[in-house]
Amino acid sequence: MPNKRLLFYTHGLVGGGAERVWALVAAGLHARGWDVTFGVDFEAPENAGLLPADMKRVVFGQGHGKAVRAIARYLKSEKPAVAFAAVGASNLKLLLAKTLARWKGAAVLSAHGRYDAEPRFLGRFNYASTIFTSRLSARTVVVSDDLRNYLIRRFRARPDRVTTIHNAIHLPPFESIPTAEALAARPNIVLAVGRLVPEKDFATLLAAIAQSTQNPQLVVLGDGPERGALEALAKNLGIADRVTFRGYLKEPWPAYAEAKMLALSSRTEAFGNVIVEALGHGIPVVATRCGGPEEVLRNGLDGKLVAVGNVAEMAAAIDATLADPGDPATHRVRADTFSLDRALDQFETLIAEVTAP
């Protein structure tokens, strides 16, 4: 009987897009009959609910050395066919554990963003080591062709071992999306979703909202170290009464159901989960040309793209989108190309490749 044991590993199921995707893929493969164990360094509640109750879980422990030794013991005793790692230093720790355990299975690493968006030393060292890690692992999964080209060009990743699998995104039932008439009748609410950190450049979005001629409301989902500064900026721009900071929401779907559009102002974005989530709820998108959005929106075919940091372009695109939000069914058709089932098919193909004799 073939070995169907898989390990999915990340630091913890905190409230990030990469962690959410990792949990969705692990749960999906579990539902397809794979023997999946989900391993973390520490327990976190934000995305833990995405894992089914009957899935095996293991906590390796905090502290990099402690985690590496615990992962090595797990690999040696459980002998999974494939172990997948995601986020920051997790890739390095899996490779170290594989060496320590002398485990013969396939280690599959992953990259979910660019070097510039990684705040921690070990996370950055992980990118700097790509020339080696992409050769020591069976594959490195990346979330976009843009990120694949970036790793190959900047960090000399081995091209034949870097595989693009676009993120698996949770989508509501098709029947739940609004009609074109219902979307056009919604109030001018612009939704923005993401951590309040410099690379998301919410300052440009706030300035664009202040310049907009459509007098929109802005709803921001997410939290982070820049929240206080952004609240102060909204006040200085005279739009504090039109901006609502709701913080991080485990279930953001009601906000998509109320908004007329989504705006993404990032300086860098390897993929853009929130873009697909918005399209999946039938609402249009304005995003910056910062990597992943061009790929998701097919260079402007499925949404409006503007230059990074350009307030006037962002404001004009928001105005045009609010005036004509388009057909929700068309938006949803594009989102369906990033469905969970599509991603699971690609992961199963990858498993077959890396476990072939």
Task: Please explain how this structure is put together.
Helix 9 links the parallel strand 9 (217-221) and strand 10 (243-247). With 357 residues, the protein is α/β, with parallel strands linked by helices. Strands 3-2-1-4-5-6-7 form a seven-stranded parallel sheet, with helices on both faces. Helix 8 packs across helix 13. It has 15 helices and 13 strands. It has two domains: 5-168 and 339-355, Rossmann fold (3-Layer(aba) Sandwich); 174-337, Glycogen Phosphorylase B (Rossmann fold, 3-Layer(aba) Sandwich), CATH 3.40.50. The longest helix has 16 residues, at 340-355. The protein has helices at 17-31, 64-78, 90-101, 121-128, 130-136, 145-155, 180-185, 202-211, 227-236, 253-258, 273-280, 292-296, 311-323, 328-335, 340-355; strands at 5-10, 35-40, 56-59, 82-86, 106-111, 139-142, 162-164, 189-193, 217-221, 243-247, 261-264, 285-288, 304-306.
Roughly how much helix do the residues carry, as a percent range?
Answer: 40-55%
Summed up, the helix count is 15
The total of beta strands comes to 13
CATH fold assignment of the largest domain:
Rossmann fold
Task: Round the mean pLDDT to the nearest integer and report it.
Answer: 93
State the secondary-structure class.
Answer: alpha/beta
- Largest sheet: number of strands, sense, barrel closure: 7 strands, parallel
The value of Rg in angstroms is 21 Å
Output the CATH class name of the largest domain: Alpha Beta
